[in-house]
Amino acid sequence: MKTIKIDIQQYFIIIVLFELGSAILVGLGMDAGRDAWIAILLGMVSGMVLFLGYFYLYKQFPEQSLTQYLQILFGKSIGKLFGFLYLMYFMYLAARVLRDFGSLLLSAVFVQTPIIVVNALMIATIVYVLKLGFEVLVRTGEIIFSLVVLLGITLAVLVLSADLLKYNYLLPVLGQGFLPVLKAAFPVTPTFPFGEMVVFTMLFPYLKTSKKSKALTVGLFAIMLSGLILSVTVAMDIAILGGHVATHVYFPLLAAVAKINLGEFIQRLDALVVFTLIIGGFFKISVLFYVAVKATQDIFGVKEEKKLIGPIGIVLILSSIVIAANYVEHIKEGLSIVPHFIHIPFQVVLPSLFIIVFLLRRKKLKSFASSPSTSTE
Amino acid sequence: MRNRRKRPIIRTHKKLTDMLADKKHDDPSSLRSKTISMETSKRKETAETVVGELSPILHVMVDRVKTLLGDPMDLIVREFEFELEQKVTATLLFLEEMNDPQILNEFILSPLMSLSSHKQSSPVPVDHVLHYIKQNALALGRVLDVETEDELVEALLAGFSVLLVEGNTKGLKLGTTGGKVRGIEEPSSEVVIRGPKDSFTESIKTNISLIRRRVRSKDIRIEKFKIGEVTHTDVAIVYLENIANPLLIKEIKERIEEVKTDGLLESGQLEEFIQDETVTVFPQFLNTERPDVVIGNLLEGRVGIIINGTPFVLIAPAQFIQFFQSSEDYYMRYDISTFLRLLRFSVFIISLIAPSIYIALTTFHQAMIPTTLLFGIAAQREGVPFPAIAEALVMEITFEILREAGIRMPRAVGVAVSIVGALVLGQAAVQAGLVSPAMVIVVGITAVASFAIPSFAVATSARLLRFPLMLVSSVFGFYGLTLALIVIIAHLTSLRSFGYPYLSPFAPIQTQDLKDSLFRFPITKLFKRPKKLSKKNQTRTQPYSVKKKREEETTR
Question: What residues pair up with B223 in beta bridges, in sequence order?
Answer without folding.
Answer: B237
